[in-house]
Task: structure prediction
Amino acid sequence: MGSLQGKIALVTGAASGMGQGIAVKLAQEGAIVELLDRQDSSATFAAIAASGGTAYSHLSDVTDEAKLSEVAQTISERHGKLDILVNNAGILSAGKPWNEHSREDLEGYIAVNYIGYFLVTKTFHPLLRKSGAGRVINVASRTYFLANAGQLAYVASKGAVIGMTRVLARELGPENITVNAVAPGMIATPGVLEHHPEQAVDAVMQNQAIKKRGEPRHLAALIAFLAGDESELITGQTILADGGGYFL
Result:
């Protein structure tokens, strides 16, 4: 029996990459997983079903408040509560000098990577309260600490996620809801490899204390722990999962 047996989880950005890895891991630990993505999540659904897990999928953008409310109503009718919320959906950094960023660039990253997290959390908060021991896990990024040149808009949006995590941990603590952020290093997903050649991923790995390429399963394992009962006193934290590429 998995550590999350009977828990109800929602993972955003679950169609592929890190979101897919997270959703599959939570299902392997026994959670019933609701998949939310603006893309078709059939591959993730199939992977969960193949391992004997249970999943449901929803097509929605994290900035579409009306659609999010519909999804929340569906989950409420199906389960009556939500135990775990993983905010993962976001825009990856493509890289651009700071003075080539437009207002639209900044607003785009903030809208999805920060406001999207806020809207999803606000929409599903009533269901998390019904859990009695809710868990909110926000996917941030190690890039916030490294402050890499060329990633101004992305870093700003992920910094906002860390700030929101800290405030919500204070505000939701009295409801026995924990709120934490996880900050991966470079994870070799198809989306990352679209913007970064294999050589760049390997170069990042060489700067780590543990010289292994980051994979979705590494982040998923940390999230599964934070989603479980044994993490009940961990809240307001940002935890890096990057092989020791950066020390807080």
